[in-house]
Specification:
By secondary structure, this protein is α+β, with helices and mostly antiparallel strands. It has helices spanning 7-24, 28-34, 39-47, 66-79, 81-100, 103-114, 231-267, 279-307, 314-339, 350-357, 367-386; strands at residues 120-123, 139-142, 146-157, 164-170, 180-186, 192-197, 208-219, 269-270, 273-274.
Length: 387
């Protein structure tokens, strides 16, 4: 379909696709097998200016929005979401600074992230605070002209590799969820260390580690937004901005799996004919293509809607994550089925794609949480209409 991209958007999409085809696809199996962080590919992305796509020009970016970010993420994900999430997670770390940071914080950190010189990461999840992020236990206590952080963060994407971390911690237990604040913590800060690199089912090129804070002192100028208590809203609003990016990962991954399955079906001969001539296979391919296009249309429309600066878009952002990620799981499963025994082998990429797809239904809020969010917004809308 023609989504009426501007010339700049088409060039951006083509640039990301070129990187995916020339730099990612040849090494994706090796990166997965060795669980190797894709530093060389990220350097190529940095040289191409991709890290600054959604960052305003005054902070060193190219001034695009959520939609342009989705175009890049989709193309990188078509090759490997282990690589694309390493790229996208830096944007996830940048958004709290962009949305809630002081002007000084924006000018200090965003240009470094936009250039790709330094990677960023976002740290909210804990062992006992995943979907219930307000249950976090990491504490930040005022100490002189700064704060002393103690606690741990779990399953942090780009953990140990990123240079800039936006970390959320409780500054006032008495205020409950309103007592959560954000802090910008640099990698080499004393008292800040990392756990082992996690062994994962999928996205193995991506680095996932525990963050450990032991009397880690952070200066008050690194308090996100310069004030306490805005942590929870910063987390929620950041996810609203980035969930379409998860949808874009899903669309790209599903597209890549579909292309492998289609090519295989046109070549594989059984019972004296290509398997694409079998109606059962044709119907699977037709469903896959339709589902991918529907998911893409949803992601693109929500991303453009967000860029139009509405007041509230939590429901739409949740939909843009929920539907495409479910589709990615279904499409990759069908791709494995079409390839049959070959699909189950690591010699073909769909085995990896199916493993990778599962995380899309989990991170940045499970799909069950997305359904809760959508339903809550529907209830609110219904109540407003009755007034």
């Amino acid at each position: 379909m023609d989504y009426f991209l501007t010339e700049e958007q088409r060039m951006l999409k083509e640039l990301a696709r070129k990187i995916a085809e020339e730099k990612i696809i040849p090494v994706r199996a090796e990166l997965d097998e060795k669980e190797e962080f894709p530093w060389e590919i990220l350097k190529v992305c940095a040289e191409a200016g991709l890290f600054g796509v959604a960052i305003p020009e005054e902070y060193g970016g190219s001034g695009g929005g959520v939609f342009e970010n989705c175009l890049v993420v989709e193309e990188l994900s078509r090759a490997c979401i282990g690589v694309s999430v390493s790229y996208a997670a830096s944007g996830l770390g940048a958004y709290p600074i962009l949305l809630f940071g002081t002007e000084e914080q924006k000018r200090r950190y965003l240009p470094q992230i936009a250039s790709g010189e330094r990677l960023a990461a976002f740290a909210a999840t804990e062992a006992g605070a995943g979907s219930d992020v307000a249950a976090m236990q990491t504490q930040a206590v005022r100490d002189g002209k700064g704060y002393r952080l103690n606690g741990t963060k779990q399953w942090i994407t780009n953990g140990g590799e990123a240079h800039i971390y936006v970390v959320f911690a409780v500054t006032d237990k008495r205020r409950g969820p309103r007592g959560i604040s954000g802090f910008i913590v640099e990698k080499d800060t004393p008292g800040f260390s990392f756990g082992k690199r996690e062994k994962k089912m999928g996205i193995r090129a991506s680095a996932t580690r525990e963050l450990i804070f032991e009397d880690c002192w952070v200066p008050e100028e690194n308090l996100l937004g310069g004030r306490e208590g805005i942590g929870l809203i910063a987390i929620l609003r950041t996810f609203d901005m980035t969930r379409p990016g998860i949808g874009a990962q899903a669309v790209g991954l599903a597209q890549g799996a579909f292309e492998v399955a289609l090519q295989y079906a046109r070549q594989r001969v059984q019972f004296g004919q290509k398997i694409i001539s079998f109606q059962a296979v044709q119907h699977m391919l037709a469903d896959m293509a339709t589902q991918i296009e529907a998911a893409r249309a949803l992601v693109y429309s929500v991303a453009r809607y967000i860029d139009s600066r509405p007041r509230d878009f939590s429901k739409e952002a949740a939909m843009a994550k929920l539907f495409p990620s479910d589709i990615a799981m279904k499409v990759t499963e069908d791709a494995v089925q079409i390839l049959g025994g070959y699909g189950y082998m690591r010699d073909f990429p769909v085995e990896k794609m199916m493993r990778d797809a599962k995380i899309l239904q989990i991170y940045e809020g499970t799909n069950q949480i997305q359904r809760n969010n959508i339903a809550l917004e529907l209830i609110k809308e219904s109540a407003r209409r009755r007034r």
